[in-house]
Amino acid sequence: MRKSTYFILPAVFQLLCFPLWAQKPDTTKNHKLTLDSVVINAYGSKTLMTTPTAINKIGLAQLQRYGNTNVLQAINATPGARMEERSPGSYRLNIRGSSVRSPYGVRNVKIYYDDIPFTAPGGNSMLNMLGFYNVGGAELIKGPGSSVYGIGTGGVVLFNAPAVNNTATIETGVSGGSFGMLNYHIKLQLPKHLLAYEEQSANGYREHTEMKRRVASYQTQLATFSSANLTIHAIYSDLNYQTPGALTLAEYQANPKQARPTVGANQGAVLANAGIKQQALLLGLVHRYAFDEKWRNTTSLYGFYNETENPAIQNYELKKEPHWGARTAFVYEAMRNISLRFGGEFQKGDFSSRTYRNLQGNKGNQITNDKLDLLQWLAFAQANWQVQKWLFTVGASANNLKLDFLRNSEIPYINADKKFSGEIQPRFAVLFNANENFSTYVNVAKGFSPPASSEIFADNNSYNLALEAEKGWNIEPGLRWKLFSQRLFMDASYFHMLLSNAVVTRRDAAGANYYINAGQTKQQGIEASLSYQLLGENRPLAVLLQGAYAWHQFKYDDFVQVNQNFSGNRLPGVAPHTYTLMADIKHKSGLLAFLTFNHTAKIALNDANTQYANAFQLVSAKLGYQKQVKRLPVQLFAGVDNLLNQTYSLGNDINGFGGRYYNVAPGRSFYFGLKLGWMK
Questions:
Q1: I need a labelling partner for 413 at 20 to 30 A (CA). Which of 158, 173, 306, 523 fits?
Q2: Helices and strands in the chain, H and E counts
Q3: pTM over 0.85
Q4: How distant is the alpha carbon of residue 585 from its chain centre?
Q5: Percentage, residues of the chain above pLDDT 90
């Protein structure tokens, strides 16, 4: 630990890292960064300097630094966060090691979309249903968000919807690139309505990795009565992508682009026609109302329906996962220095799943027929007390989850239930705001994360009702500091979390996943970001230097399985060191340049720590030109990813049976695009 600290501290202060992109430099002679103009919604905060938790804001400018296809690279510029792509359309989102228990999809991270619960009551989040243009920004809360957002130990993501800005505009764009990538979109903005359509396709960089996604969305914001408005969201997504499967090291070294081959009785990905066909519909209402100067309320109601057809190597699965829910949050500002936030959330899901034998991509004999009813609710309350330069926060949530399971494909029927009830998750925080340039805080929160429905009822048709919920305390001091007339901004935090009953992934011989509890883990780290406005935007040439650094030391503190003792080993899937360096250059003529360098250290691939994925370095660049000619905004751009043509795996299969860990990421790839618009 001491040796690592000697390395970390100099690195943290030498890196130049990324800021909050929603901010814009002041045009005063000091070129100050107006950091406090950034609106932070998490926990009901208002500015970053007065938010006592580790959080990162990703604005539209950050999203536009890369190719307009997904939010992966923007999220990966956040210290402590990692988004992975096992193949086009197959994403994982990891905040502080949360993907250790997620072989695919998003688990142990609570997601909201414009105050609408986006994570299903079973714990899964269908992040891949969203197109690039469905996201208007995001806030990433790192660590448990228990006092307001309930269950979860990894973190919380608050996605912003695109703004409805009371103007009339039309925008259309197209981009294309390597590996058959093609993306086009059209957006019609009316004063109160926003309609959009986006289509993305790719041939894929590996064998058997074609992908196509179509997303149609509608959004409107209407005044209901005085000091109130209603926002309506409708998003429909039709996604189809192939899954090539993981490779062994020998296969990866021989031909990393191949799909998983047929070996013995286990058919390969091509023979099984492995892939995902997914249709999803989200309908949501968000009502915001200010009763008076002291009382405010935000209430959301949603319905979500999705169907998934998944021919996999080991079986052929058909799933339907409809769910609905509501959330309400009240804010009461009793006095100038006291505020209260309280409310509740309710979700109900009625899932069904049928699995069949996969006979070379066709359904064979039925194996299982399952029904799963889920009921989840939470109640939360939080109080903030401002005493001069001090802010004290106390909050907690009560969480309940109930699962009722029926397997009627066996005689006698299997009927079982599982309850996680009465879980109280507190949070305490203290922040000292010395002045507009310096603040420091300590955040202490308890996390609680029950196993997801797809972890209890696993891919290999087994179920494990004995799985326990993860629980642990997270202690996190941090600071934020603005220097040199606010040109330099530093945001750094240290965290230490002891987690009991950690859920980890196992794979059987056919490549199917199942899950066990792993005793106790110890997770600690340092995450820091710096940004330096070298030249202000009021000058002909603006230059912003930025970067991010994360040191993670995640280990099994106590984990013995049968005759294997993994205590003291590193948690697989988590890089001990990552850093990102960035430079943004803008000229008043409209020319833009974005440069990014990312380093990821080697990653353990199994609990025994006998196999590691090699470290890799990624370099990307984007050049662009944007100008508005009268009422016609124009944007041209071109870029390159993985300029060094590194061979690496972005989305390893942790604890893969027989050493099947590797899913190669794209090599050097190019893209270009054009956006045109018209403004009334």
A1: 306
A2: 7, 38
A3: yes
A4: 27
A5: 64
